[in-house]
Amino acid sequence: MKELSTSYGRVFIGSKEECFRTAVFLAEGQRGRHPTAKHFTWALTGGSTPKEWYQWCVAKDAISPGTLAAAHWFVSDERYVRIDSHESNFGTADRLLLKPLGIPSARKHPWSTNVPPAMAAVEFERMGAPWFGRGRTFDVCFLGMGDDGHTASLFPGSPLLKDDGGHFFAAIEVLEKGWRLTITPSGLQAAGLVVVMVLGEGKAGTLHRVLAGEFDPHQIPAQTLKACSQNVVWLVDEAAAAKFLAK
Ligand code: 6PG
C-alpha cells in the first residue's frame, strides 16, 4: 500500500481488500506490542464499512486464534437502541463477527441501553476501566468517517468537540438522530491505536476536506484526530483517496 504521513496520522492507500487485511494486521500488531498485558481491548464501530469487513474477516478466517482468545470487544459508539435492533452497532458486530467467531459473552462489552443515556456513558467507563487500565481507553479503536466528516458519534457542531470535560465517553442527543453514546476526543487520545477506515468515491471530497482543508474540528469532527495523530492510521481505498492524491 502507498503510505503518506499527514498531520492527522499515517494514511495507507490501497485496494479495499488491502484495507481490510491491514486493519487486522494493525490490530494484531498492537496486541503483539504488549504481549504480557493482561487484556487486549478492541473497539469496533458502526456504518456500512464495518459490516463488509466483518463478513470478510469471517470468510477469510482473518483474525488469529491468539487474538480471538484474548480480545475483549467493544464498540466506539452506539445508538440508544436495543442490542437486537438492526441499528445497534454492537448488535451488528455480534451478529456478523462475534457470534460467527464463537466469542464468549464474558468478552463482549456492549453499551447498556436500558438505563438513561447519561448513566449508560458513566457505566460504560466504569465497567470498561478494569479492561482498559488507568487513564486509558481501547487498545485498538476502529472508526469510520461520515460524508459530513463525523466520526464515531461526534457530529459537526457537537459540544463534545469544544469541551468533553475530560470524559472518555459521553451521551449526546444529536439533532434528528436521537441519543448517541460515544467515545469523546479525550477518549480517542487515550486509545492505544485509532484505525479509521474510509472506502468509496462518495468519501473522496470529505476526506480531502479533512486531510487538506482548513483546520476546523468543530465543523469537521474527524479533524479532532490531529490531537493524537501519532496513534492514528487511516486505511483508505483508491476511490476515497482520489481527490486527496490529486491535490
Ligand atoms: C455509526 C458510526 C459512524 C460511521 C460513519 C461511516 O454508528 O454509524 O459510528 O461514525 O463510522 O458514519 O459509516 P460508513 O461506514 O457507512 O461510511
Write the layout of secondary structure elements.
Layout: E1 2-6, E2 9-14, H1 16-33, E3 40-44, H2 48-60, H3 65-70, E4 71-75, E5 77-79, H4 89-98, H5 117-132, E6 140-143, H6 159-162, E7 169-174, E8 178-183, H7 185-189, E9 193-198, H8 204-212, E10 232-237, H9 238-245
Parallel strand pairs: 2-10, 3-4, 3-6, 6-9, 9-10
Antiparallel strand pairs: 1-2, 5-8, 7-8
Bound molecules: 6-phosphogluconic acid.
How would you describe this protein?
- This protein is of the alpha/beta class and 247 residues long.
- It has a single domain (2-245), classed as 3-Layer(aba) Sandwich (Rossmann fold).
- Helix content is 36%, strand content 21%.
- The protein has helices spanning 16-33, 48-60, 65-70, 89-98, 117-132, 159-162, 185-189, 204-212, 238-245; strands at residues 2-6, 9-14, 40-44, 71-75, 77-79, 140-143, 169-174, 178-183, 193-198, 232-237.
- It has a 7-stranded mixed sheet with strand order 1-2-10-9-6-3-4. A 3-stranded antiparallel sheet has the order 5-8-7.
- A hairpin with a 2-residue loop joins strand 1 and strand 2.
- Helix 8 (204-212) crosses helix 9 (238-245).
- The protein is globular and about 45 Å long.
- It starts with a strand and ends with a helix.
- The mean pLDDT is 96.
- 6-phosphogluconic acid binds next to helix 2.
Unreliable parts: none
Provide the helix percentage: 25-40%
Strand order of the largest sheet: 1-2-10-9-6-3-4
Q: What is the domain total for the residues?
A: 1
Largest sheet: 7 strands, mixed
What is the strand tally?
A: 10
What is the 3D form?
globular
Mean pLDDT: 96
What portion of residues belong to β-strands? 15-25%
CATH fold title: Rossmann fold
What is the N-to-C succession of helices and strands? EEHEHHEEHHEHEEHEHEH
Pairing-aware structural class of the strands and helices?
alpha/beta
Radius of gyration, in Å, reads 17 Å
